[in-house]
Amino acid sequence: MRTRETEGMLLGLIGVVIFSLTLPMTRIVVAEVHPLLNGLGRALVAALPAAALLAWRREKWPTWPQVKSLAVVSLGVIIAFPVFSAWSMKYVPASHGAVVNGLQPLCVAIYAAWLSHERPSKLFWASALAGSAIVVAFAVQTGGGGLQAGDLLMLVAVGIGALGYAEGARLARQMGGWQVICWALVLSAPFLLLPVGGLAWAHHTAHPGPLSLKVWLAFGYVTLFSQFIGFFAWYAGLAMGGIARVGQVQLLQIFFTMAFSALFFGEHVSGSTWLYAAAVIVTVVLGRRAAVRPAPLQTQAVPAPAARPTHAR
Asked: What is the pTM of this model?
């Protein structure tokens, strides 16, 4: 059990490292492309390799209850988070958005308690709330005493995106981690064709010139890695190690995103930002040590055999 939990944590960490470049890459794309076109377009393009993989593996179609769960996943990780986080990147740096995104593990833990009936201990909730409070304090302090428009957009992305994470992890226990994101992308594609086509035409009309190579490369990353490959490890990790516990690893995404933003994109990350990130990471360590009671197994009671009637002789 402990080994399985550790494997889940490692898979979750791989997903987090992949996701940590999402905001910096998105910031590059939305410099030339409308946030809606980026957010929805990346899912539509990612549906192509997803469909090819499902066909190659000859995966059976999901059941109707699974389709309804996949609709919830799509709402969170295909529509809400990509669109609202892209809009946020029009207003705040990627390193700033990463700290606000630190609220996501708390939201994931709440949804896990609701959807999967996980029961984190009081120490776990205390560490999750402490990490979230640090994130809010950072956002208010850097916003001059109040939340900025980019903060509010990121909060919407985080709140709804966490629902997609938790529901996808619950579903991954039934059908596998990579199958969840592939089916979510494929089932969403028909609904994305019209809006993405309209947005692409509007962009071409307003800006007939070609996009820069930098934008195409960044869009390729958020399509293939952020929207597709990253979820293979992420959903598998959540399903193996527990949604609430592995979800806390996402707080480390703050650190990775800030490091990548400074290293590759030249963003200035202040000393106070690093201190806030370090404080949040301490809460991850505490949450990792805290107990989380897994979802109870559903067992059906077997009815006792009926007693044979006795006859007097």
From this structure: 0.83
